[in-house]
Automatic annotation (TrEMBL):
GO terms for cellular component: plasma membrane. It is a multi-pass membrane protein. Keywords: Membrane, Transmembrane, Transmembrane helix, Transport. It comes from the Bacteria. The chain crosses the membrane at residues 12-34, 54-76, 83-101, 107-127, 148-169, 184-204, 236-261, 267-290, 302-320, 326-348, 360-379, 391-410. CDD domains: MFS_YxiO_like. Coiled coil: none annotated. This is UMF1 family MFS transporter. One of its GO terms (molecular function) is transmembrane transporter activity. SUPFAM superfamilies: MFS general substrate transporter. The keyword Cell membrane does not apply. InterPro entries: Atg22-like (IPR024671), ATG22/LtaA_families (IPR050495), MFS_dom (IPR020846), MFS_trans_sf (IPR036259). Residues 236-426 form the Major facilitator superfamily (MFS) profile domain.
Amino acid sequence: MKKYTKAENSWVMYDWANSAYSIIISTAVFPLYYKASATSGGVSGSNSTAYLGYTIAIATFILAMIGPILGTIADYKGLKKKFFIFFFALGTISTALLAFIPGDHWLLLLGIYTLTVLGSSGSNVFYDAFLVDVAPEEKMNQVSSRGYGLGYIGSTIPFLLSIVIILLAQKEVIGITAGTASKIAFLITAVWWGVFSIPILRNVKQKYYIEREKNPVGQSFRRLGKTLKEIRKYKALFLFLLAYFFYIDGVGTIITMSTAYGTDLGISATNLLIILFATQVVAAPFAFLYGRLAKKYTGKKMLYVGISVYIIVCTYAYFMKTTTDFWIIAMLVASSQGGIQALSRAYFAKLVPKENANEFFGFYNIFGKFASIMGPLLVGATAQITGNSSSGVFSLIILFIIGITLLRFVPETKVEAPPVGEIKTV
């Protein structure tokens, strides 16, 4: 018997494909390219940063609002794949379009970037929901962790290739500008994302669904309203979402604000990119390890371990003073960030009614998106009051303590939620 089925292998390959977007477009290359474009357009540094922040906030809000609605509609037979393909196509095409926007058109860049965010995050809602279709419950931890592990590995290849091209362009070793090199990186991302998504497009199908009804949009809104009214019947599921809201906020804040911490320590941009690359490399085997250990010790216990590591990170960050300290924190984060995200996805997938997975993963998306608001505010306010960014990082310990406390009250095994619609399988 094969360890992983064709459907499972095809599903995890989307993590490999989409992770290139996460590091090249969301984290590393695009923000630097956009800042240079805005500067050449006469926009001040503070304003260009603010505009980028507003763009991300708008895209995040749109996704958070439409996630459960689209998810509820996608629970009908044959619609999950169609929604996934739509957002996947939106993401890859708009990412490629970034390469064809003139360098001084910074506002148009932000507009296209918004489409890439909607495409990437939107496709992930339905990708996550496909976990219930490809893996049995006893394998969800391993399959989800394998996806994150391969994602880290897959992201390093196009990222390294892009960085090499950009550095060679900056040193005038090759006859192109750094801006052109960045555009090549955007094309590399789109091609990588598209090519390695072929397996999920061909081999993953919606197994659990609700039979279509007349006026599916109206019926979907009614089902969504019924779920919200009967929220007490899903106590375990929403208690987990509440715990997830707090601890994933801390995880996301540390990831997204890591370069700011490094800059405060005087670490150069080049060294920060090296540390970021090393973090991706180290995170891959640890994501696999979390999946294996979850099989032996349960996913919930491994979530305790991961959250505990982040509590140590917050404590250590308070005393952070040197580049060595930053490296230690980065490696601690690398040891647990993939495991926490993978096991959270699998834990949630075990709790949801399979025929309504899209609807509930829409809520999962809401909690994940809005969780990215409180952490940065907490860090910013604490750092401003104390005049010390290390104190800001330490303040995140509150989120992890609340999260791990709430997680204690979530059942270890799946609690069967009442079906919202008639379940069908193929």
